[in-house]
Amino acid sequence: LAVPTVYEPLAKKRGGEDPISFLNKQLLQKYDPTGKRRALVHSKTGLRAGDIIKVTYLDRTDVVGRVLGVKRGENNVGTNILLRNKINRIGCEVRIPVFSPKLRNIEIVQRPKQYLPRAKQYYIRNTKLDVDDIEASIKRQNKKNRKAEETK
């Protein structure tokens, strides 16, 4: 009879952590070394549907819009944000990957006084709840605030 060969078990790699979560941590460290974007997307005080945000790219172009939904990637860096704005009275939506190396900054411009129900607000499209031209409305609001301060 031939005796089967028995090999020693392989050494534990990655500190015993499974490969998917280990790779996810490495990718997050690569694309978000400061942890600012992770905190923005994954914390309770971070980004919510209904917030108005401004995304700045490395080539200094800006995108301003209302967040309709945040798709959080589980064990990957595929988290993205769906923004909606109106340009020339036409509704425009853009999906922005949060961990893209082309992004410079994501900042929250305004939070609503009261959030609408649901985590993803696709239902506001073409209703009375739909967004207006956000940049123009923020300028109008700032103008009103300045006039109110001057009258005091």
Automatic annotation (TrEMBL):
InterPro entries assigned to the protein according to its UniProt record, in alphabetical order: Ribosomal_bL19 (IPR001857), Ribosomal_bL19_sf (IPR038657), Translation_prot_SH3-like_sf (IPR008991)
CC per GO annotation: mitochondrial large ribosomal subunit
Domain of life: Eukaryota
One Gene Ontology molecular-function label: structural constituent of ribosome
A Pfam family: Ribosomal_L19
GO BP, one annotated term: translation
Coiled coil ranges: 124-151
SUPFAM superfamilies with a match to the protein in the record: Translation proteins SH3-like domain
Similarity field: Belongs to the bacterial ribosomal protein bL19 family.
Protein name in UniProt: Ribosomal protein L19
